[in-house]
Amino acid sequence: MFDRYMICADTVRNLTRGGKVVGFEFGARIAYYRGLGLSMVEDLAVTLDGEKIPRECVRFTVGDKIFSLDQMETEYEARWEFGEIATVSVLKENGLSPGEHTLELTEQLRVSYMPFPIQGRDRKTIVASA
Amino acid sequence: MAAANQIKFGVSLYSYQEEYFLRQMSLEDCIAAAARIGAFGIESIAEQMMPGFPNLPDSFYECWHGWMAQYGTVPTCHDAMLDTKKYKGRLLTDEECVVEFERDLKHAARLGCKVVRVLCMVSPEIMAQAVPIAEKYDVKMGIEVHAPYHFDHPWIMRHLETAERLGTRHYGLVPDMGIFTKRLPRVARDRMERLGATPRILDFVCAAYESGVLSEYVIFETKKMGGNPLDVAWAEQCRHSVYTPAKRLTEYMPFIFHIHAKFYEMLDDGTEYSIPYDKIIPALQAGGYQGYLSSEYEGNRHIQDAYAVDSVEQVRRQHEMFHRLCSSTGGHQHV
């Protein structure tokens, strides 16, 4: 549910540190009908143009706190609220090249009353500016 | 006859989740939308529309009560979640669950709710431990009877036996009207078609479900027909859906604290496609139900990929139907 709203396409931008492009980031919403504590967000799998981004290269920012996916596993305070646009950052040398790209996000959420984790998946064509 | 029309009307704000998610409606807008159609009972899910829960400031509760006064609304039910899988690799212990319960019961009491909806996976053992806390806050705990569970399911029967044995007024049920799914939702069927399921097989499954064919036969036949994985997934939906007798509502009335008036699609003719409210309402009246029929619109997830969602209109239509069905049995009274 809410899959089509997961990636906020108009928020995609390159990530610059010290004048150098070190990756890219985009706004993302939770694919569930309520917010969750971060320990229950098991995975945020990002694929760019068919290529899977390694898990250790993904960061998640909510409020003003930044987490790696491993750090999220033991985060029991911060929450990703329902409908809240958090930021998913991808560390990738040179970020996005100018032009069209296919960006895919799969969220895996550990929902207590379900026997298995639930997944939401969104794929959008995005345009990176030069 | 005196008790025949004491059903009260409300909305679970879950119904407006699409508009809230997209920030088209605020929590206050949701409350106002319910009040506008005379559905004055407000049910809420803190983890959906009250960001910051469980650490809400006093100012939030003051604001909440301000809205209740302003819109003439009444808090009815808080939907508790209970994240038993909060920690990776282990479940919460029963003691930890009871601590979480206290948090939710306290929140419900502060909102002014008389009922907490408890998810059906919570065990009777945990419920028994939580009873003294519920009594302390004077908030009733209702196990949600949600498909594929139903009144006669062994797990729900254990809950009822435990509640009866404890002899408390604070442990009962919140049935979800999805347990009276006579026809699989058309909006869900159509979505499967958009995803790539086979129309002929989807229709076969819908017809088989409606005529009561055992799920296992439907799934087997679907595979035999050469169904793709989506077709099989649709057939498996029969396993997760139930149609049970409406008279169970009358029989279990003493345990029913609140009702989730689940619906998927209100049609132009003022009926719900899947759930026969024309059978449900008389069964509630026969039992003298005096609680709330709390709308729970769940069609948005099936149409949002292709259509604009108008939850406000869907809920309005459901209430129009409630008023029609209640008045056809002898005139209803407002809250």
Straight-line N-to-C gap of chain B: 18 Å
Instruction: Quickly give the structural class of chain B.
Output: alpha/beta
Strand content of chain A: over 45%
Q: How would the global form of chain A be characterised?
A: globular
**What name is given to the CATH topology of the largest domain in chain B?**
TIM Barrel
> What share of the residues of chain B does DSSP label as strand, in percent?
5-15%
From the alpha-carbon coordinates, what is the Rg of chain B to the nearest angstrom?
20 Å
Low-confidence stretches of chain A: none
Give me the strand/helix succession of chain B: EHHEHHEHEHEHEHHHHHEHEHH
| CATH architecture classification of chain A | Sandwich
Q: What is the mean pLDDT of chain A?
A: 96
Helix content of chain B: 40-55%
Largest interface, C-beta within 8 A: A-B, 26 and 26 residues
How many strand units of chain A? Answer: 11
Q: How many separate helices of chain A?
A: 1
Structural overview:
- The complex is a heterodimer of chains A (about 130) and B (about 325).
- Chain A contains one helix and eleven strands.
- Chain A has about 130 residues and is mainly beta.
- Chain A has a single domain, classed as Immunoglobulin-like (Sandwich).
- Chain A has a five-stranded antiparallel beta sheet with strand order 1-2-9-6-7.
- In chain A, a hairpin with a 2-residue loop joins strand 1 and strand 2 (about 20-30).
- The radius of gyration of chain A is 14 Å and the shape is globular.
- Chain B has about 325 residues and is α/β, with parallel strands linked by helices.
- Chain B has helices spanning about 15-20, 25-35, 45-50, 60-70, 95-110, 125-135, 155-165, 185-195, 200-210, 215-225, 230-240, 245-250, 275-285, 300-305, 310-325; strands at about 10, 40-45, 75-80, 115-120, 140-145, 170-175, 260-265, 290-295.
- An eight-stranded parallel beta sheet of chain B has the order 6-5-4-3-2-1-8-7.
- The two termini of chain B are about 20 Å apart.
- The interface of A and B includes residues 34, 36, 40 and 84 of A.
